[in-house]
Amino acid sequence: NKSIIYREIPDGLPTSTHLSLESSTIPASAPAGGLLLQTLYLSLDPYLRGRMRDPETKTYSEAYVLGEPLSNFGISRVLDVSSTGAAAASGLKKGDLVGSPFAKTQFRLYQPVPEEQVAHYAKIEEKAGVPLTYFLGILGMPGMTAYHGLVNVGGPLKAGETLLVSAASGAVGQIVGQLGKQFGMRVVGSVGSDEKVKYVTEELGFDAAWNYNAEKDPYAAIDKYIPEGIDVYFDNVGGPLADAVFLKAKVNGRIVVCGTISQYNTPREQQYGMKNYMEVFQRRLTIKGFIILDTMINEPGTIQSIVGSVAGMVGEGKIKFKEDVVEGIENTVSAFQGLLTGKNNGKLVLKYSD
Ligand code: NDP
Fold first, then answer.
1. N or C: which end of the chain has fewer CB within 10 A?
2. CATH architecture for residues 2-136+322-351
3. Taking the model in full, what pTM does it have?
């Protein structure tokens, strides 16, 4: 068996010293009352960086435990089901595909699931024409985040309003921008390369986008691409762009704070400090943060209707979704580093086996 074990808390970009690839024996069968799973796909998400922290620091997510494998949303095949206890009662059968709605799939090729954790795994009902990996992306947590963040937190949306989204070609950003178009908004994206500019404008129908690595002054970029001012900013990155938006938002503008990835690898005392905070009252801005996990836990009905809406748009071809699939457990750490430095092109998914 091979696993990615959490060995050390990183203070910057995580490396193989912090996340180490280790071998062990493959379990022969399910533990009593439990399951034996084979991991097919794992989602790599920026929030995993926040789980690599001092466990005394409490946040919305559980800190990873040193010496244990990483875990996240994943898709596994059931290899063995114990004939007793929770596993037998679960109705799961050998060969079923299961997801883990609460991010318990471990970063290992074969995963024994003890009886008390069987309830964390749910059978995936495959849909014709829908790639399995979409359950980790547009039909999974990132899709819920994009829809809930834009429509419920950032709304009510009005046709003709201007939406700016950062990390616009990523898992969440690409959906946010396309949803904005569905609501009749003018959509502008900020991305990290010319290729990503091309993708969001030519493939996804964004009205404009800029590469912040080439056009480095966010004030000038906003003046150039959004001369009318910003009604809604969907913030995935924080830092200097978010600061510039305070000054360039329209009066009564709304800012949805989804994430601040530009600051995730920087210690708190060295993070970018906002200079335009006074614009929040001068421009009567509304700033709202949210955590999709809250909605997943407390509002299953909302989540069900979001997934239904998004699945409908996917089925009707109204929305596209780009994935970046990296094969092999040995490429886990470099793929995660790439996610935190903008190397991914679309939703990053790890493929561990067929
Ligand atoms: P993405 O697929 O967008 O991948 C991350 C992207 O962030 C990179 O491709 C890169 O795009 C951009 N990025 C990386 N480093 C920097 C940097 N230093 N400055 C600016 N941009 C950077 O990831 P997701 O769509 O999964 O996540 C997007 C955001 O949404 C994250 O902040 C994440 O934490 C947040 N999130 C929040 C949730 C919530 O419940 N609030 C739930 C899910 C995600 P580029 O090359 O364009 O810069």
1. C
2. Alpha-Beta Complex (3.90)
3. 0.97
